[in-house]
Amino acid sequence: MKKSLLALLVLFAFVTGCKKDDDKNPSADTKTLLTKTWIASKVAGNASGISITVYTRGASTNLYDKFKNFSVSLKSDGTYSSNDTEGTTTTGTWALSSDNKTLTLTASNGAKVVYTVNSVSSTAASFKYTIDLNAQSTFVTAIVQLAAAQGVTVKTGDYLTFDVIPQ
Fold first, then answer.
1. Class of domain 2-166
2. Where in the chain are the domains?
3. Distance CA 96, CA 25 (A)
4. In terms of domain of life, where is this protein from (predicted)?
5. Considering Cα of 13, then 63, then 165, then 132, what sign does the dihedral take?
6. 54 with 65: CB under 8 angstroms?
7. Are 37 and 45 contacting, i.e. CB atoms less than 8 angstroms apart?
8. pTM (2 decimals)?
């Protein structure tokens, strides 16, 4: 049951560390590396101390195989388009922090999701979404409600990790 909770949590989230720049703009190299269409290669996380792999591309069995349908296109003009696991398209803007450690996706409806950039290269990237129960957002509320329905308590600091590869 706890495994299916994490699979449900992953449905609400998305979708690289680079050297620190001293200037105010993100590294052009990092932005260039991120500017492409990404698909999920592995989705894993930790909720209430339970670590689990939810999806691995090419695996014969996944807890949530619909991640094979997921993609996100980060465009050079600062916009993005993503297709979730159910086929819903979301558009908005994306920004990389000046230290290249934070990726923020802002949907056209104003909803924001912030990821820690774990790593980025021309062939792969990894992002971490850390849950903050003090954040008053629809996203966090949905995670907490789904967890409660499965008998799992989500704590601030629980997280999901998204490993992606170019499409």
1. mainly beta
2. 2-166
3. 9
4. Bacteria
5. positive
6. no
7. no
8. 0.77
